[in-house]
Amino acid sequence: MHKAACIIAARASQVGLRARNSRNSPVSLNKEQVQRIATLARLKLADEEAAETVQKLSRIVAFVDQLSQANTDNVTPMAHPLNASQRLRADVVTELDDRDHVQENAAAVQDGLYLVPKVIE
Amino acid sequence: MAQDLHLLTLTQIAASLRNGDFSACEITDLLLRRIEASDASLNAFITVTADQALATAKRADETRAAGKAGALNGLPLAHKDIFCTRDVLTSCGSHMLDNFVAPYDATVVERFANAGAVMLGKTNMDEFAMGSSNETSFFGPVHNPWDLERTPGGSSGGSSAAVAARLAPAATGTDTGGSIRQPAALTGTVGLKPTYGRVSRYGMIAFASSLDQAGVITRSAEDAALLLGVMAGFDARDSTCIDHPVPDYVAGLSTSLNGLRVGIVRQHFDAGLDGQTALAVKAALAVLEEQGAILSEVDLPNLDLSVPTYYVVAPAECSSNLSRFDGVRFGHRASDPKDLFDLYCRSRGEGFGAEVKRRIMTGTYVLSAGYYDAYYLKAQQVRQLIADDFRKAFADVDVIAGPTAPTPAFKLGDKTDDPITMYLNDIYTIGANLAGLPAISTPCGFVAGLPVGLHLVGPPWGEEALLRCAHQYQLQTDWHLACPEAYR
User: Fold this and answer.
1) What is the rounded distance in angstroms from the CA atom of residue B64 to the CA atom of residue B40?
2) How confident is the model at residue B284 (pLDDT cuts 50, 70, 90)?
3) What's the sign of the alpha-carbon dihedral B72, B242, B131, B106?
4) Contacts of residue A104 in chain B, CB cutoff 8 Å?
5) Closest Cα in chain B, distance from residue A69 (Å)
6) DSSP letters for B271-286
């Protein structure tokens, strides 16, 4: 699982997204749930956006829910479309130091460091 | 100099440059002027790199004069704005990256440049390649050269419109669920999506890493073969790029279709397919049969599940990939954040458009605790079933043929209200991405003046058969030569 997904999964239980317990109930999301998902995804939704998102996200979730009808007993989840394994390489530095050029895309840098709002008082 | 150089294919331009009929500077200048004259109504380009193009063309002419011309020397083409191009805006169709100047070249861009190709500019696209109509672009929708009120398809809609309108003989694209092939079908161009791992994804802004693949939109199968030969091959900088020999795709085109086993999927011709489109595709199948291909029916029993499977896997991967946009290192940054959390949420909330946000949230939801097994794991299992269906089918046939899209180009604004209606546009193309297979769309007719595409899917590394099939079909038909009247 992706690292980000692990973090998201851990946070999801903290904020109380309840797991589905019935496969038969129609899936839909309410405004509160959508706001929680938005928070997990670090997305600020404007109020007018939120209502539309509830409706469309519910449509999408109900649509993908048809997968629950597929019989997947004893089926190995796909990890790679061609069943290739992850290639490894030697742990050596191969790239040149291009920091100044790369940091030209950042909004706020100082002495080669990225600046963010204060996180430690 | 002839008046209609813009109608030439890449292969024809290459021959003319070799013969000295005209120079790379001349064809580049002519296409740049066409872009300037036409693009206000099409919106196919986000950036036109005119000065750079003319300088590259001049160098190409000098290289040729010195007898050192590369495979694509002096050939003009455009890049989808998802490919990083050093020191050139690389926006990915998003407000998030509308100030991002890539610090390096994508491998695809580098390979084309090393072969001598001339980049005309960067083409418009659905935001982060998420869309089937080019309407999610921050830079506005692209218009179809066949009817400006209609979509050129998506997400590589700028590339398909530019090639169809003869503003560029070829353009790169990327295909995660049909984003090269569907726009090619809707604009009467050729669209090739190679096998997963065939072409490096390095420097190609990631949407769904297990599905994304780079390819090309051209006006002939021959041109697609020429370009694939240059862009394909191992690249250590993409960990999913596979080290597999690259054949001479152009040399493979001339073999006849005699004995080629072509599979037809019955469900492809069910109620979801527009009747006139079905007739055009069936007529194309008859042409293949006349050329010696052997048609037979194959079954893909889990085909109906491909779109819902895709809309779990792709958003899940997108939610992970797009977590890199944090307003810190690159991309849009919200002003006056009150803390780090606010910086993240507002930078992302402001920088991403509605469809991208929906997909990130869908992905976040299907990966979240308690839902992961029911959605993500389940989808990866169904994906295995779908790939198995293809494996079984390819035991009996060399190529699977059918329609590329359920209808010809629809009107801009027609499908923006309901995401599912839009998603179902990719019903015939998504399977190839889920199973990692190569596929091509080639023009096969018109319905009410709008182009229709024939879709061919092959087994892994089966690009040669696809290109040969499309090329041999193009030798018998002239649909791929049709040019929208206003752009002749």
Assistant:
1) 34
2) very high
3) negative
4) 101, 103
5) 10
6) TTS-HHHHHHHHHHHH
Q: How far apart are CA B196 and CA B438, in angstroms?
A: 7
One-letter-per-residue 3-state SS of chain A: CCHHHHHHHHHHHHHCCCCCCCCCCCCCCCHHHHHHHHHHCCCCCCHHHHHHHHHHHHHHHHHHHHHHHCCCCCCCCCCCCCCCCCCCCCCCCCCCCCHHHHHCCCCCEECCEECCCCCCC
Query: In whole angstroms, what is the distance from residue B42 CA to residue B394 CA?
Result: 40
Contact B349/A46, CB-based, under 8 Å?
A: yes
Judging contacts by C-beta atoms under 8 Å, the chain A residues touching residue B308 are 63-67
Distance CA B446, CA B144 (A): 14
Is the Cβ pair A8, B349 closer than 8 Å? Answer: no
Q: Work out whether strand B261-265 and strand B294-298 pair parallel, antiparallel, or are unpaired.
A: parallel
Burial class of residue B258, CB neighbours in 10 A (0-12, 13-18, 19+): exposed
Q: How confident is the model at residue B89 (pLDDT cuts 50, 70, 90)?
A: very high
Per-residue pLDDT tens over the stretch B108-142: 999 999 999 999 999 999 999 999 999 999 999 99
- Please, what is the end-to-end C-alpha distance for chain A in angstroms? 34
Q: What is the pLDDT of residue A20?
A: 44
Residues of B in contact with A117 (CB under 8 A): 337-340, 342-343
Pair of tokens at residue A10: 């851990």
ipTM for the whole complex? 0.92
CB contacts of A76 in chain B (<8 Å) are: 381, 384
Domains and CATH numbers, chain B: 5-263+396-487 (3.90.1300.10)
Q: Tokens in use for B120? A: 């005309």
Catalytic residues of B: 80, 155, 179
From CA B133, how far away is CA B144, in angstroms rounded? 10
**Residue A75 Cα distances to A50, B309, B380, B382, angstroms:** 37, 15, 9, 8
Mean pLDDT of B138-152: 98
User: Mutation test of the interface with chain A: which of B95, B238, B319, B368, choosing the one with the most A Cβ atoms within 10 A?
Assistant: B368
- The CA distance from B338 to the nearest CA of chain A, in Å, is 7
Q: What H or E segment, with its residue span, contains residue B175?
A: strand B171-175
With CB atoms and an 8 Å threshold, state whether A45 touches B349.
Answer: yes
**pLDDT-above-70 percentage for chain B:** 99
pLDDT tens digit string along B421-456?
999 999 999 999 999 999 999 999 999 999 999 999
State residue A11's pLDDT score: 42
Distance CA A6, CA A10 (A): 6
Residue type for B481, please?
L
Q: Which amino acid is at B314?
A: A
For residue B3, what pLDDT is reported? 64
Q: How far is A96 from chain B (nearest CA, A)?
A: 12
SS3 per residue for B77-140: EEEECCECCCCCECCCCCHHHCCCECCCCCHHHHHHHHCCCEEEEEECCCHHHCCCCCCCCCCC
Q: What percent of chain B has pLDDT over 90?
A: 97
The verdict on a CB contact (< 8 Å) between A77 and B381 is yes
